[in-house]
Amino acid sequence: MHQIKLQSRLFDAFLVGWTAWFALGVPIFWLIGSPRKAIRAATRLWVRGVLFGLKHVVGLDYVEAGRDLIPAEPCLIVCNHQSTWETLAFIVLFPDVAIVAKQELLRIPIIGWYLRKSPMIIIDRESGSKALMAMLNESREALADGRSVLIFPEGTRMKESEPIRFKRGVELLYAKLGTPVLPVLVNSGKFWGPSGSSKRGGTITVSYLPPILPGMPAELFVREAEAQMEAERSRLI
User: Fold this and answer.
1) Tell me, what CATH number does 133's domain have?
2) Based on the structure, what is the number of domains in the chain?
3) Whole-model pTM above 0.85?
């Protein structure tokens, strides 16, 4: 336990130092008009550094299973949410992905600026139906721009032992976007829990599951996606 805490603290120190370098890029990007593609490339570089630190400081790596199932065209990705890890890793796993995220994400020093300018799909859950319509419209724009859209349908980070249950919003995207949906299951909570304070070594599995085609009733889609993801979650426990 002492070693885990030490490794976590060393990684946190590494993260602060690594992130500080990207503060230098903020005024430069601002002066040249905040080009989105360049900012996304810088954000991917930052994430690659974070994953490097996790691997070499904490001993936490990842493997992918079923990558051949990823649709060739931009799609809607639904993934369970167990830790901060998947929020970061998907920026590398799916270059140019547009992540549906809470406003709190923008409060992260330095990197919040990069995420805002990428841009990601930031929602204010307090605004109710307005947030849903904004999410739908921005998702359409992202897909039209050739970017896949990632949503964490559980709405918040969950413990690895908790079953997959979608909250409101994802069925609207499925019904209105008319694009294939790629269910993804991660078991990151085994190594980096919801609180985020402690990280331990191991190998996170990223499981890509069979895509769900558009056109079925939204309620049936939710049950199908939940069932696929729950079966994989139970297998990886």
Assistant:
1) 3.40.1130
2) 1
3) yes
